[in-house]
C-alpha cells in the first residue's frame, strides 16, 4: 500500500502531548464520540505524556485545551476528512501560526500542527482495498460497479472539495470499479442527487466523514432511507439495498480504528521531521 504508516514509537513522544481536534456539534454532541474513542486508543498505547481532544463546536475548545497544556512538545492533529477552512485557517490561527507555518516554539518545547487525518497518503490505498474486498465478497462485476464518495463540503464560496476530488482521480486510476464520483452534503455536486452522478447498476457508497457523528449517520441515513441507529452501529457494509433502480452497498468506514490510530501517529512523525523551528 502506498504511504503505509510507520507505526514504530518515537521515544521523544513520552515527554509530549497530543491533541486531536474534531469539528464537534452544539446540537449533536455525539459527533465528538469518534474523536474521543480514537484518543482513547492512542492513549492506551502509552506513547505520549497525555492525549487530549478538542472541538470547534463544543467543549472542550481548542483554546481551553491549549491553556491547560503543560510545558513541552505539543502535537495537534485535525481529525478532519480533508483540507478546508478549519484546517487551513481557523485551527492554525488559534495555534498562533502564520499562513503556511506548521511549527513554532512554545514554552519548554515546540508546537507541531499536522495535516488533516483524511489527507494521509495511505487513505487512497485503504479505500481501494476496502472497495476490492466488497466487490469480491459480493461477487460484483467491476465493470458494472461504481464508487460514490460522499464528503461534507462547504457552503462558503469555492467550497472545500479538493481532497475528495483528488481522491476520485487517484481511485479512478486503480481500476477497481468502472467509475468513481464525489458528491457533497453542503456544496455541488449534491449528495441528494446521487442517482445522477453514476450510471452503474451497482454502487458502493463510502462517506468521507472521519467523525461518524450526525453527518455520518443522520445525513447519510436520510439520503438512502435508512435507520440512523442501524447505520451508526454498522461496522460491515450494508447491502444490497434497492434504491432508485440501483443496488447499493453502504461502506460505513474507510478502515478499522487501530489503523486510523496508526495514521495519526505517522502524521505526527512526518510533521515533526518536516522542517526546522523558526528562529
Automatic annotation (TrEMBL):
Organism: Roseospirillum parvum
Highest rank taxon of the organism: Bacteria
Keywords, alphabetical: Lyase, Metal-binding
Name of protein: Sirohydrochlorin cobaltochelatase
Database matches in Pfam families: CbiX (PF01903)
GO molecular function: lyase activity; metal ion binding
